[in-house]
Write a structure and sequence with these properties.
The protein has 608 residues and is of the alpha/beta class. 37% of the residues lie in helices and 21% in strands. The chain has 20 helices and 27 strands. The strands form seven sheets. Strands 1, 4, 5, 6, 8, 9, 10, 11 and 12 form a nine-stranded mixed β-sheet that branches. Helix 10 runs parallel beside helix 17 and helix 18 packs parallel to helix 20. The two termini are 55 Å apart. It comes from Tumebacillus lipolyticus. This is Aminotransferase class V-fold PLP-dependent enzyme. InterPro entries: Aminotrans_V_dom, MobA-like_NTP_Trfase, Nucleotide-diphossugar_trans, PyrdxlP-dep_Trfase, PyrdxlP-dep_Trfase_major, PyrdxlP-dep_Trfase_small. Its cofactor is pyridoxal 5'-phosphate.
């Protein structure tokens, strides 16, 4: 028995993992898809396999040469694979198959033994399909009208029996007609040729069950195939993760943090939740650099903005705030103050401009202000603002210091006591590398207590109420996102085990890899390097780059970066190295980035 495997295609929809690797060589456990197919065919009586190759064909040659297959394998080159489809590839097998019966198999099908048993059990023409009541437009469907069976992506309703698996048996008598039909429409799909001969050479239908096979068209298909067909004892990790997030939030988290969500259900008014809430709050104090007993914290179910809103709307009424801004997130603090009608003065230095401490002191020295608020890490440009210097300045004037450390806690040197911070906000899904949905306010106990009796502008985000419930009653005022507390505790355990100092070293090293490559390419940063944080680099695009094509290229290769914001939109982009990002992620991205520059510059010049 002979078999033909069609493995010439580019697999564009798998671009993240097929840039230099043909689909047929994607690993499924300890075998590639191609090796698995050849082994299974040989186990079911096939003596000769003809593989039609095209895209990265040399890689397939080398692979088969390095690992001799269990039967005779011959490679057929399709030099026009970029402009032809499966019909043309199948037609190239005609001189090799001759008048013999053969199996025809798509090179992107991963299946268990049942599929091959179905093929081997029949003598005539056979199509393998999976019965379905609901199908997607992407699927090649098997339909039946009278005695005739035909294949089409557009079959609808009761006529569609299910999805064609991409496996067929062509009998000796039908082969000549099949190849003649392929010659008539060689630019299309081989399924059309099967339809053309179906009336003269009827096909029997054989079914396979759901979960016994998968066609790999998309990244999610590949990941599912690994899960379906890889035995646990092999300890095989998929070739890729879902996406590599090189944006400053949300960030990637570790497997341990994700697995922490698999916990027993608990009531949030029961002892179990009291314990995890208390543990998380204690560990958060360590992350904030608290060494004494003067500081505490509360955890709010909501993003980092909810913590800032809780602080401004609870602390602000009856006080006057000076709010510093040199980017989007400083402006957001100003917007929150306006929203809650808090008396405030915005001191805006302009995006990406450093804070002028002399100007700050001039205003603070007037005695008009009860508190000053600033963003520690302004992620719209990647600038790290000088909170230690500001804290020291405010201490001399007895002005409260409010800090947004949403994207800096766990990544930068931040100690609330040392910096004389009154209240400090943060978020779970930045450098702490937990899941999004929880935020925190750490502050002096005396400052929390001073909020008592003050009329907050919101009920859900009443900061004293959170303090009263959590610090005094070991509860939360509202139903919390219980599962996120399990993830948060795991992330805090990982941070404290690594130590903040080690995380800072790690982030700094990754940032140096990024910045050294960008400088080598002659690119310009939006701010000076000494002003940058360890976790974010904002850089101007090279000249001639099609910004959207470049962003799409990066996304197609499974990496997510930020476009520039505000005045940098269309001019600069951002690369973050925050969260569970590893060195290999960064190095791989930089190679892809450089290729993306070359490709999008070429396209731009052609358009011109």
């Amino acid at each position: 028995m002979k078999a033909v495997i069609l493995a010439a295609g580019v697999g564009k929809r798998l671009a993240p993992i097929t840039q230099t690797l043909p689909k047929a060589l994607l690993p499924i456990g300890s075998e590639t898809i191609l090796s698995r197919q050849i082994r299974q065919l040989a186990e079911h009586g096939v003596e000769e396999v003809f593989v039609v190759i095209g895209y990265e064909g040399e890689a397939i040659r080398e692979h088969l040469a390095a690992s001799p297959p269990p039967c005779d394998v011959f490679l057929i080159e399709n030099p026009d694979y970029r402009t032809t489809s499966t019909a043309y590839s199948a037609l190239l097998a005609e001189p090799h198959v001759g008048a013999s019966p053969f199996y025809l198999l798509d090179g992107d099908v991963v299946a268990d033994a049942a599929l091959f048993e179905k093929l081997a059990a029949e003598d005539g023409n056979v199509l393998i399909y999976q019965p379905k009541s609901i199908s997607s437009p992407e699927e090649m469907k098997v339909s039946q009208s009278g005695d005739s069976v035909y294949l089409s992506k557009t079959s609808e309703g009761e006529a569609a029996l299910g999805e064609f698996v991409g496996a067929a048996r062509i009998s000796a008598g039908a082969g000549e007609a099949f190849f003649a039909a392929l010659r008539e429409q060689s630019q299309g799909y081989y399924e059309v040729a099967l339809n053309m001969i179906a009336a003269q050479f009827p096909f029997a239908l054989a079914t396979v069950e759901e979960g016994t096979w998968i066609e790999i068209d998309f990244v999610t298909d590949y990941l599912q195939a690994v899960r379906m067909f890889t035995e646990q004892r092999e300890g095989v990790t998929p070739l890729i993760s879902e996406q590599i997030l090189l944006c400053p939030g949300p960030v990637m988290v570790s497997k341990k943090v994700k697995s922490a969500l698999l916990h027993s259900d608990i009531g949030h008014r029961e002892t179990e939740f009291i314990e995890i809430l208390t543990r998380c709050r204690a560990k958060l104090n360590q992350a904030y650099g608290v060494t004494g007993k003067d500081y505490t914290n509360v955890i709010i179910t909501g993003s980092g903005t909810s913590a800032n809103e809780a602080l401004i709307s609870s602390y602000g009424p009856g006080k006057k705030l000076l709010i510093l801004s040199n980017g989007e997130f400083g402006n957001r603090l100003i917007d929150l103050a306006r929203c809650h009608e808090v008396d405030h003065t915005p001191l805006e230095f302009g995006w990406a401009n450093p804070i002028d401490l002399e100007r700050v002191e001039q205003l603070v020295a007037t005695g008009e202000y009860d508190g000053l608020m600033v963003v520690h890490h302004e992620t719209s440009c990647g600038m790290l603002n000088p909170i230690d210097q500001i804290g020291a300045l405010l201490q001399a004037y007895q002005v409260d210091f409010l800090v947004d450390a949403v994207s800096s806690i766990g990544a930068e040197a931040l100690a609330v006591e040392k910096a004389n911070i009154t209240f400090c906000t943060a978020s779970a899904n930045k450098a702490l590398a937990s899941l999004p949905g929880l935020s925190f306010v750490c502050g002096k106990k005396s400052a929390f207590q001073a909020l008592k009796g003050q009329k907050a502008r919101t009920r859900y985000l009443d900061l004293y109420r959170h303090y009263e419930f959590e610090a005094l009653s070991f509860q939360t005022p509202n139903t919390p996102a219980v599962s996120l507390f399990y993830a948060l505790e795991m992330a805090l355990d990982e941070l404290l085990q690594d130590t903040v100092a080690e995380r800072m070293r790690h982030y700094g090293y990754l940032a140096s890899l990024i910045r050294n490559r960008l400088k080598k390419l002659g690119l310009q940063f939006v701010i000076e390097e000494e002003q940058m944080s360890r976790v974010l680099t904002t850089v101007y695009y090279p000249e001639g780059i099609d910004v959207e094509e470049f962003h799409d290229w990066v996304k197609q290769n499974n990496y997510v970066i930020y476009r520039g914001k505000g005045p940098f939109l269309g001019k600069a982009f951002q690369i973050a190295n925050i969260g569970h990002v590893r060195e290999e992620h960064v190095r791989s991205f930089l190679d892809i980035m450089e290729r993306g520059f070359a490709l999008t510059q070429t396209k731009t010049s052609v358009k011109q």
